[in-house]
Known about the structure:
Elements (H helix, E strand, L loop, with lengths): L2 H17 L4 H16 L4 H6 L13 H13 L3 H9 L2 H4 L8 H12 L4 H9 L11 H15 L6 E2 H15 L5 E6 L1 H5 L3 E2 L2 E7 L2 H9 L4 E7 L3 E6 L4 E7 L4 H9 L2 H13 L2 E4 L2 E4 H5 L31 E4 L3 H6 L16 H6 L14 E2 L13 H10 L4 E4 L14 H17 L4 E9 L10 H4 L4 E5 L8 H13 L5 E2 L17 H11 L2 E5 L9 H10 L3 E4 L11 H10 L13 H7 L4
Helix pairs in contact: 1-2, 1-5, 1-7, 8-9, 21-22, 23-24
Amino acid sequence: MKNAEIxxxxxxxxxxxxxxxANPFRVRAYRNASRTITDLAExxxxxxxxxxxxxxxxAGIGAELAVKxxxxxxxxxxxxxxxxxxQVPQSVLAILRIPGLxxxxxxxxxxELGIKTLEELKAACQECRVRSIKGFGEKTEAAILAGLDFxxxxxVARMYWAEADVFAQALLEHMRGCKGITQMELAGSYRRGRxxxxxxxxxxxxxxxxxxxxxxxxxxSVISVLGxxxxxxSVQLANALQVDLRIVPAKSYGAALVYFTGSKxxxxxxxxxxxxxxxxINEYGVFNMAAAAAPAKNQKNTKATDKPKKKPTVDKDADxxxxxxxxxxxxxxxxxxxxxxxxxxxxxxxxxxxFAWAAENKLPKLIELADMQxxxxxxxxxxxxxxxxxxxxxAAQALGLKYIAITDHSPRVTVANGMNADRLLRQWEQIDxxxxxxxxxxVLKGVEVDILExxxxxxxxxxxxxxxWVVASVHFGQNQPRDQITNRIVDALANPNVxxxxxxxxxxxxxxxxxxxxxxxxYDAVLKNKKILELNSNPARLDLDDIHCAAxxxxxIPIVISTDAHSVQGLxxxxxxxxxxxxxxxxxxxxxxxxxxxxxKKLLGRK
Length: 607
């Protein structure tokens, strides 16, 4: 039982309890426990199995929660969760996916109108019945209608890449114990680095099919086998994630990896290019169709009574016999070479710009985690972080970073204990003293300042001018009209103290749509004022997304990839931002904090 599974279970308990209008302190206990477990670097399984240690030694985990964790580790669930799920149908919980609705309002809809599904809720809104509930009005009804399509979207049911990665890495570690495997790779949207994952596709090269399948089925998180064929097998994991296994021979491994990595659009282009050359590409290999059609030299005339020869096949699992002559398929590089293309990184395979780059031999060297020199967005326990200033600095230096910016919240974010000017200046004094003592890393005096609903910033210029790094963000008024939100951001970019805009569209993947902002106007303001836009690496944000990052790349707008870390463990999310940047085709030259701090200042027009 992985930490992510236990955290998700506690989050579900909190959702159901809040839906049932349970004691808010009880709800908060499960929410806090989920956050604690999410940030925990050490597996709970390991702690629970050690008789010398107690789960209650973890901050926020009391005796009752410790028992539930022990039960989950042993059985995969616990009685309270099973009981709660029986009390509230899954279809009702789907209502919680509507942006801004929340468990209490979802409960009111269920109790007052008997609504159990998204379809029933849509009908109630269209019939103007929702506005009759106390606390609901015409605007709320309209907002619910506007959010229904988002809640019903298949994307909402998908898992964050970061969550899927926990199970993906555990699965790969398990499969490495199978001696019958020659090589393997996870394919599909996971390999392409999409921000959400529907399922996992595991491709294996092996001549020991049954041994591999048996080992696959013995993976600890498997709760059911959905199907098992000659070379294919599907299972469901404890977190409802489906994993599909495909076993292929060596001659087809590269072709199968191209095929099952996708995307569908990328593969359609490849097949079209192959057809134009008299070739055929599928998961079994690349085949020369023209060679198969041409008569062999000295071939004898075939009589009408002669029996037709059996069609050649790539392997016994191919459904379908190919009439072509096999020419490639062992490696992906071989497959692309048959079309005179270089190997294309999986993150680029979306039929956007990769083929134009490949045709001109201009595929970029995509950014890597090792390229990063700094992290310019993080929080300490002075606001809503969980670690001290010194702990965050020490952890960042251990990761090899050369500089970081401490960017605790400004006063407007009261829920995060936002800092006023006096508190902030005292923190900056601490940073100055820390820089005098610690060598090898520079700690920048920073702040995440709110862009206020009425416009302007949450701290005055006298305070902000003393900072090394100011990142401005929108946390409130996200439902304002397009022009109003855009003007707020554009005005903030004109402030000489602001360096960058954090999470510029405000989206929370699967939970909150981006606010309505004119990004073209924002891009123009960034260029005019020599500013930077953030790619926030939090896996629930990844904001800017890959398309918008690519737009910045084309306009010459520098991106800063930041963690927005609220704990020591949170510094590790940088790799998710890197993955998103790679999907956008970004190189280290496109990202500001791959440079030394002195060069970042030059990008901002500062000495």
